[in-house]
Amino acid sequence: MAAILLVRCDPEETFGIATDTLASAGASTAVWDAIDGEPRPTLDDIDGVALFGSSYNVEHADERPFIKEARELTLEAIDRGVPYLGICFGAQLLAWSLDSDVVKAPVREVGYEAIRPEAAAVDDPLVSHYGDGDHVFQWHMDTFLLPEGATLLATGDRVTNQAYRVGDRTWGIQWHFEIDRPEIEMWLGSFEQADGGLESTWGKASATIRAEADRFQAMHETKGREVFTRFAELAASAR
């Protein structure tokens, strides 16, 4: 049984489909509530690390100490050869940890966007099941430059870098493949209560995202579950 550490970097992070999918794949999970200031855990008994999204960006590292702690955990995982999976903020943090720049994206992506797998994705252990034009859930304003030696796995039509691999045990994926419909509704609800709503700050109305979810979410979850299942299997075999 693989032991997977889930890293919470946002107070509204529920981990979506991750926990039950990993359990179904035979993995146990532990949670580090980094956002709440819990001490950084040891990786001595951890077989894989999945670091999730955040409403903060790496530019807030001097204001939010958890970001630098998450960076140290990321580097430790890489140094130890512990499989690592960075999701959205986690993908950006991985790039930043490896001395690549994280910058404002040309557009703010929110809702479902098409991705374009690269040739290297065909036999990738985690994302080979994604196809050209698959719609995935996005919510980000930053993007990253590829770390030195990284392999680009997927691009987007509006934001180029969407998924990459470093070596054979480390991944960064920009889209929220972990998200389920209840978490989407929670995130939308937070913006609907704010002044101006979602469309004024992100350029897309909540109703539009809900309509997209009706169309794309079922397949999105199926493919996301496959990523977590594969990650659990890889973590178990990488001990």
Descriptive overview:
This protein has 6 helices and 9 strands. A 9-stranded mixed sheet has the order 2-1-3-4-9-8-7-5-6, with helices on both faces. Strand 1, helix 1 and strand 2 form a beta-alpha-beta unit. Helix 1 runs parallel beside helix 6, helix 2 crosses helix 3 and helix 4 packs across helix 6.
- The name of the CATH topology is Rossmann fold
Indicate the CATH architecture.
Answer: 3-Layer(aba) Sandwich
Low-pLDDT parts are none
Q: Structural class, from secondary structure content?
A: alpha/beta
- Count up the domains: 1
Identify the notable features of this structure and list them briefly.
239 residues, alpha/beta, Rossmann fold, 9-stranded mixed β-sheet, 6 helices
Question: Helix and strand layout, with pairings?
Answer:
Elements: E1 3-8, H1 18-24, E2 28-33, E3 48-51, H2 65-80, E4 84-87, H3 89-97, E5 102-117, E6 135-144, E7 151-156, E8 161-166, E9 170-173, H4 181-192, H5 197-202, H6 206-237
Parallel strand pairs: 1-2, 1-3, 3-4, 4-9
Antiparallel strand pairs: 5-6, 5-7, 7-8, 8-9
